[in-house]
């Protein structure tokens, strides 16, 4: 008797045969924005990982670069808020072997720098493409990514020894 009262209080359900699968999916599946992460490389051995949703590019040197430099002892980073253009010098890395300038792989405004590198510059050796990131840039011209190398082209560059 209790179940009968509940059924009478609920709106009449449509039979399953009348509910299209597409319609059901459209009503029950929330809309998701697709974020695309694009990683590109320069011939000077910097990389940028660009997030299409946030428009932020994370920048550092490649594993190949840190191996060539040896033990990193000092990292000079750009100032947050600086406006930079693709190809501008944005910092430097000093190691026991050499010093090397860092160039902006993409144009934008420096949003954040990796403060940890001030005390632990060797993070560039331990984790150059993860914890050893240098800075984050609010990208102003994402089309510049097309001028950079994809992973396959960068790997070929390193294998061929075409370092600049």
TrEMBL record:
Primary location recorded for the protein, binned into one broad class: mitochondrion
InterPro entries: 2-oxoA_DH_lipoyl-BS, Biotin_lipoyl, GCV_H, GCV_H/Fam206, GCV_H_sub, Single_hybrid_motif
Manner of cofactor binding, per the entry note: Binds 1 lipoyl cofactor covalently.
Annotated compartments: Mitochondrion
N6-lipoyllysine, modified sites: 97
One GO location term (cellular component): glycine cleavage complex
Necessary cofactors: (R)-lipoate
One GO term (biological process): protein lipoylation
Transit peptide listed as a keyword: yes
Residues in coiled coil: none
Span of domain Lipoyl-binding: 56-138
Keywords: Lipoyl, Mitochondrion, Transit peptide
HAMAP family given in the database record: GcvH
Assembly mode: The glycine cleavage system is composed of four proteins: P, T, L and H.
NCBIfam families in the record: gcvH, PRK01202.1
Annotated PANTHER family: GLYCINE CLEAVAGE SYSTEM H PROTEIN, GLYCINE CLEAVAGE SYSTEM H PROTEIN-RELATED
Job of this protein: The H protein shuttles the methylamine group of glycine from the P protein to the T protein.
Family of this protein: Belongs to the GcvH family.
Name the UniProt record assigns to this protein: Glycine cleavage system H protein
Organism, as annotated: Botryobasidium botryosum (strain FD-172 SS1)
């Amino acid at each position: 008797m209790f179940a009968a009262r509940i059924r009478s209080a609920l709106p009449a359900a449509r039979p399953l045969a009348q509910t299209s699968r597409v319609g059901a999916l459209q009503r029950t599946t929330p809309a998701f924005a697709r974020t695309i992460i694009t990683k590109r490389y320069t011939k000077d051995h910097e990389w940028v990982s660009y997030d299409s949703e946030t428009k932020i590019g994370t920048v550092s040197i490649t594993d190949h670069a840190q191996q060539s430099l040896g033990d990193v002892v000092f990292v000079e980073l750009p100032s947050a808020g600086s406006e930079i253009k693709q190809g501008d010098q944005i910092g430097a890395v000093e190691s026991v072997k050499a010093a090397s300038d860092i160039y902006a792989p993409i144009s934008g405004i420096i949003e954040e720098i990796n403060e940890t590198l001030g005390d632990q510059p060797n993070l560039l050796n331990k984790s150059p493409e993860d914890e050893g990131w240098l800075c984050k840039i609010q990208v102003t011209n994402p089309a510049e990514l097309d001028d950079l190398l994809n992973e396959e082209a960068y790997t070929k560059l390193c294998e061929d020894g075409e370092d600049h």
